[in-house]
Amino acid sequence: MIQAALIGAGNRGFYAYGSYALRYPHEIQFIAVAEPDKEKRNKFAEAHGIPESRRFADWTELLEKEKLCEALLICSPDRDHYKPVMQAIEKGYSILLEKPMSPIPLETLEIAEAAEKHQTILTVCHVLRYAPFYQALKEIIDRKVIGDIVSVQWNENVGFYHQAHSFVRGNWRNSQESSSMILQKCCHDMDMLAWLIGTECKSVSSYGSLTYFKKENAPEGAALRCLDGCKVEKECPYSAAKWYLHDRDEWPANVITADSSLASRLKAIQEGPYGRCVYHCDNDVVDHQVVNLLFENEVTVSFTMTAFTKDICRHFKIMGTKGEIIGNDAKNELLINYFSGQTEMVHPATVKGGHMGSDTKIMADFIQRVNEKNHSSLTSARASAQSHMIAYAAEESRVTGKTISLEEYVANLKKEKAETV
Questions:
Q1: Domain boundaries, the chain
Q2: What region holds the Gfo/Idh/MocA-like oxidoreductase C-terminal domain (predicted)?
Q3: Fewer Cβ in 10 A, N or C end of the chain?
Q4: Which of 315, 157, 330, 308 is nearest to 237 (CA)?
């Protein structure tokens, strides 16, 4: 069994990774937590039996101590990753780091370099690589049953209510406070595409905007908050009452307050950010975006992220020289159409846990690597930094309207770093 500390006891830290220790207490035990929100901090600590002396209001208090345990999980907000991870590397912790590594490209490169320099076990939470569904897809591609990949169509269907919860009202609504949509939400997709295709991305172009979730689209009679006499609340698909006052044990109702009682949830939407009208928030991240990617060997990718879907899923078509793969991760289906006329439907094995079981699988993999002192990782800092660069370049293209060469983009970052040293 390994011992671990947690920085950031929010949804990912508490439910995705912390819950693993409650299900498999013989594998991992949390002995310390750092979380500024007192309710969240105490809720996590009480669930894991952490004493008062190991409950910290700030991550700096945890990391100023002598090394407490073998492993550290960093699940704090996007802009609070760089400093704690760099200090944790220096202290010799094995680290599980929530994505994105940092909203700042240079910081991401520095994290990767520091992890390699200190031979740190550092796993970045690009969890989809660990999902049985996507591992089965990777195995099919690597067997070349559809020949060589030529082109890919890939859709990230965020879902209308997920967009409203996380990217209009929630923690990732504003790029200046967190990060861009293409990095925060879709670095998973950029990472998956790089991993599945298996060659270097050469250039990126992108278009997208915040089109719908803004004040000029508010229906007549809409109030600033859903429960402040809004005349259209009953028929609004984004009503906070619909999403947060029912199914208290289900996401997203179970994450708007540490106490999931009806009274606490009602207070949260009367006073907190999740009760705001979706047309009257301080959001600035896009609600739809397309990215075109050119990989080595002339492989082309067309990627679409959109808020405007009923279901939350990824679906795709991967087209090769001998056949095509059509997939939908929500349905757990991979349809292989061979050009010979044969078809094959694959339903990969499933595992309990979030992100199609990948939250469970990444924790199991991380614990095994810590036990074995195995410094390699499927989502190492270096591999993850490379796919992060695609996301950064996509946002650069969206903002400037230019096609971005990945090689030039990274070279300019390294030049900028050298000039600041």
A1: 2-127+359-380, 129-213+283-352+384-420, 218-275
A2: 138-406
A3: C
A4: 308
